[in-house]
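Input/output pair, single chain:
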Amino acid sequence: MWVYEKPDNLVEWWQESEKKYGDKPLFLVHDGDGELSPVSYAEIGRQIKAARGGLAALGIAKGDAVGIISANRPEWAVLAFAVYGLNARYVPMYERELLKTWKYIIQDSGVKFLLVSKPEIYEQVKDFKREIPGLEHIYLIEGEGDESYEALLKSGEESDFKPLIPHHNDIAVLIYTSGTTAEPKGVLLSHGNITYCAHTGYKLYPDLHEGQVGVSMLPWAHSYALVAELKAWVRFGGVLGFMRSVDTLADDIRLIRPNYLVSVPRVFNKIYDTIHMKMEDYGGLKKKLFDAACSAARGKRSLSDQGRSNIIVNIKHALLDKLVFSKIRAIMGGRITGALTASAAMNKEIAEFFFDLRLPIYDCYGLTETSPAVSMNSPVAWKIGSVGKVLEGQTVVIDKTVTEEGSADGEVIVYGPNVMKGYHNKPEETRAVFTADGGFRTGDRGYLDEDGFLWISGRIKEQYKLTNGKYVFPAAIEEEIKLIPYVANAMVYGDNRPYNICLLLPDFAVAARWAEQQGVKADPEILLKNASFRAMVVREVKNHLKGNFRGYEIPQNFIFLSEDFTIENKMLTQTLKLKRRVVLEKYAGEIEKVYGGEH
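Output:
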């Protein structure tokens, strides 16, 4: 049996860090004048104590559920650690969510106290107290009066309530999955689940230490950012600045000047596309130097992979790195030494580019149900394209009985101290995802190589079979298509069909250059109807996929879209995963036209 490393609960986790880093900054908050104001560990600790006392005065006790609807901000963290000190359960929810989803989560989890961030959210949920039995209080962060965040703190300032120290098996958070195919499921994660992942993962990153700065851009309402960012940063005395919005991310990075990033491939893909697009715009000497720097870096990496070195190659690389790549790093704050990514696989070409740029991105793997870390690449050991080595204390088994005969891969099954306690109020669903001996069935296909690195092939439920009997894993094809400059987004489909098709959103900024060269208007609506433009994009896609995919995998027909897949239109989950069912429902008519009724 695994022995949990101390601290094995999130109350002592916080107490040790507050004592050690008290006067050091934990958060950097935008002050509205383009500057950042630091908030110390000690100040957050003061608010945690007051919030804990205020909640206790309202009758919140061990085992109760406390909910929050908010984006990342200091108050989010304060309430979380206050709740842990009552040995209660924290139930985070996204700001950008359907009203019915909030209501379902609050009802299902039994939330007794709810904190919301903004008046507009409060207006939507204020009647929940009347409609949901058990919900007694709704407080507002950006508000005044008796049911405001400030009032909660004031009511607990003089409290002498001593924090309870939970057992590592006590439930700390109840995180609801995004529900891409059904109603959300509440994942029960214990104090031990979370502290184990943060402890074990942090040890693989020796360059993370006190004072290291990060940019909080992923929602803490998801286990990935909650554990890999908030909990880990608190443990080693890190500092977190907040992304204001996706649109301001570039400016926020320049202002915060992070040392490390915790993000998802979509963000790095966008940075990669922007860099290459700007170099194309510059042209001339700048473009030639950039191409030369990329070539020199690839050459140095190739020799390194062979265990070789060449002084001429090294000098050329060092010179071009200083002339070109150092300027790109400066634009990103000048201090980034690496990044962590998960949620989807990094494209190999993009990952190699960032390694060459000396901004290594370490691909990791996990699920909400595994708290979330299962495997990690890291500065200690990595293989580009893999999702790293399985963390100490866990065992991964590859079940080949669920995949077609002769496959090298199978379903990834996880055993370890990170595996959830189950789904709240869903005993049947819980039994369905566990093996008889306690392994968690991830639903992902993968394999372990001879060096112990885990490789993910695809999602078992997302794979499908064409009418010719061939299996297709659409995600890999989509990621490759999205590397093409003219493509902003894509979804591949062909389930029980004679061939694959692709729903494709052009990158209209790049397309505008093509339009200028062709002497046509760059208006998106006009371009979508332009037969030459469409033919050019199709040609680019098919030529790019040749050699990387089999003929039956390459889409034979295309549906051009004018609207992206987003969280707002419900086609992406909160962690930017594609909701295929939603997309298929929306474009069912167009899809049937393309296939001409064929099945």
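Residues 267-459 form a domain with the Rossmann fold fold (CATH 3.40.50.12780). Residues 284-305 form the longest helix (22 residues).
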